[in-house]
Design goal:
With about 400 residues, the chain is α/β, with parallel strands linked by helices. The protein has one domain: Rossmann fold, CATH 3.40.50. It contains 18 helices and 8 strands. The strands form 2 sheets. The protein has a 4-stranded parallel β-sheet with strand order 2-1-3-4, sandwiched between helices. Strands 6-5-7-8 form a 4-stranded parallel β-sheet, with helices on both faces. Helix 13 links the parallel strand 5 and strand 6. The longest helix is centred in the middle third of the chain and has 23 residues. The protein is globular and about 65 Å long. The mean pLDDT is about 95. It binds iron/sulfur cluster. Iron/sulfur cluster (SF4) binds next to helix 5 and helix 7.
């Protein structure tokens, strides 16, 4: 009799949680703020806003493989088909009045913003993208522009970002109709910190010999740390998930029965091919145990005793916003933590910012760490830039080479 398929039971709770989140957004009961995924969500939430994340919508458009229907509509308006396919598919979907939120969560459409906030700590594209919607909905927009590509983030840079965060307060007060409440802000940061530290522990369970959470699982279970951080529900969800995954490690239950190689995924997910890639790695006994993407929502510097400085620092120190030197140091640490045998870089056609294979980093990092690398070309949403056949052959060859390397050690 074959072993039962590996499942994560907490997924049922995850579905309830995400469903309730979208119901709240769609109910029209509260004021809605749009925010970038690594933006100042805690500050917005402390004013009582329901917070909506267009990148999450972009990921849904990618995962449902509807993005390509919408991108041409944005191209007609002057947005290049070679810029961020979250941006172009999201704008195109709006222009065509379509959204997967209708079918999957029963919403009439995307939630209308009362306020839009963005942070260019990840890219400048979000400024263009969010400005389109501020114009379309004629609503106020505030932007945070932190220093970028630093080796180290100093107190001077943190103070600069704190000033920008504080400039949001009068706008939030005016739109929400509430006065800023420092205690509420601290409490939101505390909940966010607890959730993010639990999320970090969740990811680290896959350092085990029998890893219980793949990168592909992580892209699903990261939902609450993206859209619900700063809430009790998100915190409780990760406590539940952690307990289950730790029990699986104890019992020697992993997401694949035999692990021949341990892989690190660098760059954006290929949303339209998650299942295919997950099956491909698994069928080659390769466990994709860690990623820069899922680790991007670990904000371990959050501290409710210093809510302004700690959030400004955490959001400025994220991987995508750092110099190559800092990124290589972070990757080298992750390689050690997860005992990585090989790294797969996703060189995303339309996300220049979250692709690290364009300026020789794979070669330099291999020389530094000794970890072999493969670069796969593709895209987060636009599957015209991804070749199933070519990618499968390249990944299988790479995994075979890793296995041979292991066998002669
Ligand atoms: S980081 Fe990349 S995928 Fe994300 S919004 Fe910016 S360009 Fe788009």
């Amino acid at each position: 009799m074959s072993a039962p398929a590996y499942t994560i039971r907490s997924t049922d709770r995850l579905k309830e949680l995400m469903g309730a989140y979208f119901q709240r957004l769609g109910s029209g009961a509260g004021k809605v703020a749009w925010c970038t995924s690594v933006g100042p969500a805690e500050l917005l939430r402390s004013f009582g806003f329901e917070v909506y994340f267009p990148e999450n919508h972009g990921a849904l458009l990618g995962a449902t493989r509807t993005a390509m229907d919408h991108i041409p509509e944005a191209v007609k308006c002057g947005y290049s088909g070679h810029v961020c396919s979250y941006t172009t598919s999201d704008i195109g979907a709006y222009l065509r009045n379509e959204t997967p939120l209708r079918k999957h969560y029963g919403l009439e459409g995307i939630p209308k913003p009362d306020l839009i906030a963005y942070n260019t700590n990840q890219c400048r594209e979000v400024e263009d993208w969010f400005t389109f919607f501020a114009d379309a909905f004629k609503c106020p927009i505030v932007g945070i522009h932190p220093p970028r590509h630093l080796d180290e983030v100093s107190d001077d840079e943190v103070q600069l970002v704190v000033k920008q965060f504080k400039r949001m307060v009068p706008v939030c007060e005016q739109v929400s109709g509430r006065r800023f409440d420092e205690e509420r802000f601290r409490e939101t940061v505390r909940l966010s910190r607890e959730a993010t530290l639990l999320w970090q522990q969740v990811l680290r369970t896959s350092a085990a010999d029998t890893p219980p959470l793949s990168f592909f699982d992580g892209t699903i279970h990261m939902g609450p740390i993206v859209v619900l951080r700063g809430t009790q529900e998100a915190r409780d969800y990760y406590a539940l998930l952690l307990e289950e995954l730790q029990a699986n490690v104890q019992a020697g239950r992993g997401f694949i029965p035999r692990v021949r190689s341990r892989i690190f995924w660098e760059g954006m997910p290929i949303w339209g091919r998650l299942r295919m890639l997950s099956d491909l790695f698994a069928s080659n006994d390769a466990a994709v145990v860690a990623s820069t993407y899922c680790s991007s929502w670990v904000f371990d510097r959050f501290d409710e005793h210093e809510p302004w400085e700690s959030t400004a620092r955490a959001y400025t120190e994220i991987f995508i916003n750092r110099s190559e030197k800092a990124k290589m140091a972070m990757l080298t640490r992750w390689f050690e933590d997860y005992r990585i045998d090989g790294i797969v870089y996703h060189d995303s056609k339309t996300c220049f910012n979250n692709s690290n294979a364009k300026f020789g980093m794979p070669q330099r990092l291999r020389a530094l760490s000794g970890v072999p690398a493969l670069v796969v070309e593709g895209d987060l949403c636009d599957m015209r830039f991804f070749s199933d056949g070519q990618s499968t052959t390249r990944i299988e060859t790479f995994l075979e080479q890793l296995a041979e390397r292991e066998s002669v050690r």
